Amino acid sequence: MKYKILSLALVASLTGCSDNKPTPSEVNIDTPTATEVDAAAAGFQLVYPETRKDGTVDTYFETLVGDPYRWLEDDRSDETAAWVAAQNAVTFGYLEQIPYREQIEQVLEKQIDYEKVSAPFIEGDFSYFYKNDGLQNQDVLYRQPLVNGKPEGDASVFLDPNKFSADGTTSLSGISFSKTGQLAAYQISEGGSDWRKIIIIDVKTLAQKGEPLVDVKFSGISWRGDEGFYYSSYDKPEGSELSAKTDQHKVYFHTLGTPQSADALIFGGTPEQKHRYVFAEVSEDGRYLSIGAAVSTSGNKLYIKDLSKPESQLVTVLDHTDSDTELLSSDGERLLLVTNLDAPNKRVVEVSFTDPAPANWKDLIPQTDNVLDVVTAGGSLFASYMVDAISQVKQFDMQGKLLREIALPGPGTASGFGGKAKQETVYYTFTNYKTPGTIFSLDVATGSSDVYRKSNSPFDPELYESEQVFYESKDGTKIPMIITYKKGTPRNGKTPTILYGYGGFNISLTPYFSSVNATWLELGGVYAVANLRGGGEYGKAWHDAGTKMQKQNVFDDFIAAAEYLIAEQYTSSDYLAIRGGSNGGLLVGAVMTQRPELFKVALPAVGVLDMLRYHTFTAGAGWAYDYGTSEDSKEMFDYLLGYSPVHNVTVGVNHPATLVTTGDHDDRVVPAHSFKFAAQLQEKQAGPNPVLIRIETKAGHGAGTPTSKIIEQYADIFGFTLYNMDVKSL
Questions:
Q1: What digits encode the pLDDT tens for the residues 87-145?
Q2: Quick one: how far is CA 34 from the chain centroid?
Q3: 182 has which bridge partners?
Q4: Cα(641)–Cα(648) distance, rounded to whole angstroms?
Q5: Which of 283, 329, 455, 582 is an active site residue?
Q6: What is the DSSP code (8-state) at residue 655?
Q7: Which of 36, 66, 374, 598 is least enclosed by beta carbons within 10 angstroms?
Q8: Between β-strands 170-177 and 195-202, what pairing exists: parallel, antiparallel or unpaired?
Q9: Is residue 582 flagged as an active site residue?
């Protein structure tokens, strides 16, 4: 089980862009009256829609807190819909007058328009891989016959998500094959929602088997033989399915040929088994079912059942949520677990199923100074370590004996390596901020790697520099940051720069290539990524140092990154933009209200921005490990109130030029966060910097965003950024 999918985060959050942009003449803005705002610095006269204020006041520990824009939380109301339309009309009216917006779009198309292919994976008699011809809205899943265990011959289309919907907004969000590889179940997301449908097909004929399963959320699909599979979901909430709270996750077993109403409830149906996130996975040998149960995005209980004995019960491995622990592999009664229990950087342990309590665990791969992630393939364990956010990979046998270190092309991120137990060849991808992903094949027996597929990207990495620096945060902590730019870029403080950060949920920002970021570099910009506390780059201690009442550390780390870039003359406050999505949107919202003079442009995407109420929407209560909640204690409430972006917009302050982005189908971080933050900024902004909100329709938290929308969105983001840095032409 990979518990990272519990996070609210998508590290590289995308919010897309509307195919049908409303214009002022097309939108009824009678409901919100207009307020004229001087935006002289941008050379454009803005008229913001006036946002109605109500008298909502909440009491927290005898403290009264106004919430005048509470009505914007109702995503089903006509008034909210009118407000969204009016805001989009103003936003797109502004964006469309930027003189080089179309030029940026052309550069984006050039950088994105090349054949992109994923590393292959083996299922049954085929090798599968994803491919995008260039500008296809969704990646297409192909398959290729296996000959002597290796893919050979012509590849053919297996699933084409571009045919799921006319506008490309229905995406393939996961697929799982039965143990024989003869059946497959795949999930689709409509309009970017986290609510999914599961469709079952015969792999040979591609014929659909039975009716789709509906109302599935935060779920894997794990097959038991070919008879059926385990999946997870919540009861459909009362009220809006896009914003109403979901709290009790349940595991079901679906037997092929039966209706969904007959699915067996396996775990989560009793008060004792109530958890916000529950996941089930069958071991590769088919013998064990493991169930992980969590109340937050960090820490899980673990239960295992012997499927070879029909009457067997779940055996408790861990009855607390003080660690992240999962079943890695099994061989008879021997279990291998990967855990951070008593090992903040993780370790692999072995134990017998007959008595799997932690007291009986024996280290197989002990903890080291670097964070461990491990997968199995070809009868080996492939251990990936993060060394200052850079990959190091070692191969062990199943008894924990070190076989070799895998030679990588250079500093960057190597991902993949997983596969079936009998595979002789595995695949991995290597990339960094200036190097498009190259796929390698690795011979498990010898550890030797060969280039399997080079990237066709038009981006030339030889023209760019990417350097890692370490700077001091406010409390003296050393923070790594990777800065990428075109060779010969002058250090004169006048280069447009985007500083990106996340800092939460144990998520690590490791170097990866992005055609979108390549466009920014091609335009002459600097792209900097800071590895803030709250992430997972240095293990659990690094994560915990950016949680709850230490969350300010994350903001201080980001502010110090900006100050470093300015001090070293990579840029200056007049040419510095900050960007982050989801938890990173919170990061941007917090620092732009704490140090508004430090940045010229702020780009918060799908952000968690109302820290007093985030836990009342969808699965937000599960983020309390990182944030705490306003109900926990007066001390916690006061701390959250002290940095909550919605509550810390100050009258009379000239905040940075701000483009808030969100999606109307975001049911992870509901768009009301962004709505209320934008309303506060527009009401209280002093000075000429524009404050706009761009609300994508038929889009969610980011996953599955069509390529066409990505191109439009980033043309707007980069155009807005450069325009407000007073860049006259490209």
A1: 999 999 999 999 999 999 999 999 999 999 999 999 999 999 999 999 999 999 999 99
A2: 36
A3: none
A4: 8
A5: 582
A6: P
A7: 36
A8: unpaired
A9: yes
Do 49 and 83 meet the contact criterion of CB atoms below 8 Å apart?
Answer: yes
671/706 Cα distance (integer angstroms): 19
Is 46:92 a contact under the CB 8 Å cutoff? no
Catalytic residue among 254, 655, 665, 701: 701
| Contact call for residues 581 and 607 (beta carbons, < 8 A) | yes
370-381, pLDDT tens digit by residue? 999 999 999 999
Q: Which two tokens stand for residue 596?
A: 């508004």
**pLDDT interval class at 8 (50, 70, 90):** very low
Distance between CA atoms of residues 82 and 74, nearest Å: 12
- Contact criterion met (CB below 8 Å) for 36 and 47: yes
- State the pLDDT at residue 153: 86
Q: Burial, 332: exposed, middle or buried (Cβ in 10 Å; 0-12, 13-18, 19+)?
A: exposed
Residue 127 is a catalytic residue: no
| Strand extents, DSSP E, 503-642 | 526-530, 576-581, 601-605
Tokens of 582: 């989801």
Q: Which of 699 and 40 is assigned the larger pLDDT?
A: 699
Give me 223's structure tokens: 């097959």
Q: List the beta strands (DSSP E) in 448-557.
A: 449-453, 464-472, 478-486, 497-500, 526-530
**Which residues, listed in sequence order, are joined to residue 659 by a DSSP beta bridge?**
692
- In tens, the pLDDT along 350-360 reads 999 999 999 99
Do 447 and 460 form a contact (C-beta atoms < 8 A)? no
Residue 666's pLDDT is 64
